[in-house]
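User: Small ask, check this?
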Amino acid sequence: MSTPILGIDLGTTFSLGAVLQGGMPVVLPNALGELLTPSVVSVQEDGTLLVGAAALARSHLHPRESARWFKRDMGTTREYEIGGQRFRPEQLSALVLGEVKRGAEQALGQSVREAVVTVPAYFGELQRRATRDACAIAGLVVERIINEPTAAALAYGLSAMGQELRAVVLDLGGGTFDVTVLEIIEGVIEIQASAGDSRLGGEDFSDLVTREVQARIYREHGMELAAASAEHSRLREACDIAKRRLSNAEVARIALPGLRDARGRTASIELELRRQETEALFAALLARIEKPIRRALQDAHVAPDQVDSVLLVGGATRMPCVVELASKVFGRLPLRHLPPDEAVALGAAVQAALKAGDRAVDELVVTDVAPFSLGVATGQTVAGRVVGGLFSPIIDRGTVLPASRVETFHTMVDGQRQIKVEVYQGEHSLCADNQHLGSYSVKGIPAAPAGEQAIDVRFTYDLNGILEVDTTILATKTTRSLVLDRSPAGMSPSDIKRATQQMKHLKFHPRETLPNVTAIARAEAVLVNLIGLERAALLECLHAFRVALELQDPAQVELLREVLVARTLALRSGERE
């Protein structure tokens, strides 16, 4: 049996893995038998790491010992300190990738080493490099980095092989938003334009609801909750659940018994959220969603009424206000042909099958485009004075990948012997307003009057979003190359090696007892929001389960865990038996 290439959706909120089986992509369950693995890491009191569902449940009561939403900080120098240990975003992402990898291996019954990993289309060069670093730390060989909406289009295109249509994919996940315009013709998926916002997602909507409810609690009870406290985490979790319920209901109830503020005052909070009032809070976020949609359509030279299908991807697209926005822009109801949470992973599996040469997808072809313009810093002489810091694009956004483009530049002063090549990414005319990717010096230019020596700068940009810069002094034919694989914020090869070694020494909770730890953590997270008979009933289940664990009776442990999980789920979802 050949070793499969795993498709992984490394998400802000949830991550998952998929492979092609029987000609169709299938999401693989994790160690708990669940399809979605929360992108959360938590450290217990003894230094043991929890990753996934158990970490998410624990984060509600122990936010300072937990890390969430770190995907947004990929490619930055930020560090997270949890449980007395420090982690970079790449390391935290590597822990999540490792959890998805192990779950896939358990489901497949064989080891997995190669992977196709998705990133938001609007992830820049530094964020893509950080994603590759995370994969390396997790022990994965990344065969391909693919944009999330492109992956969703692949999954959709597999079921639309015989169709000819133009579609727009709107991908609103927990932390990022992407929009992609594409055309499908006889199995060829041509990406025509991409745009988005790498710091906009469902979590921002939850934050707004939380701030509004927090303000109401202050107005009505005079209570202020300390930031990053367990009580604030309780409030945010309750608001997030209420936001989700409002996708299918007009009213959602929030109940927080015994809520304690920063001064030690306690009150039992009960209030209702109405969909119409809540959606009024989202106007600014919806405007941020609409802006990239309009830009992508403009870049693709496509009018809204020329779009045949609007596809919704990502859990946050379940919100009615997002559906209404899409309907307003395109004049038609958007579609959900695939499960919103799974579409990207399914597409990653299709790309993995393409990479492996699977015959089931041999008629499928996909092209992609550069999401950003890439260029160099240049200068101009105005009235005898040199004005620098001007951005000169070499590869424009929307250029079909892979691409190679060259521009010729000239020396600016008499006798100039070297130049500094500074590479930027962005759309602004000034380099200061764009993102600096790297720089290097080219020496050995023959001395000559200003403007007489020419230098070619070639950018080569591949499908993984990896940029190579070649600089050639035309007079001497000497070339210097730079592969932009590092940045001041990035991890060096020695950093990656050290982080990989550290992974081997981290203390993880035993996988065979992970279902038990997860069940307890989820029950405790629900317990703090209960009073009276409901609290007593859940406590009884929790105590009985802990006794079974102490007695080490496998049959009783399994039976009582199922009872505890069912009771917890019923109380968390608001159901009553």
Observations:
- The radius of gyration is 26 Å.
- The first strand starts at residue 6 and ends at 9.
- The chain has four domains: 6-200+287-369, 202-283, 374-475, 511-572.
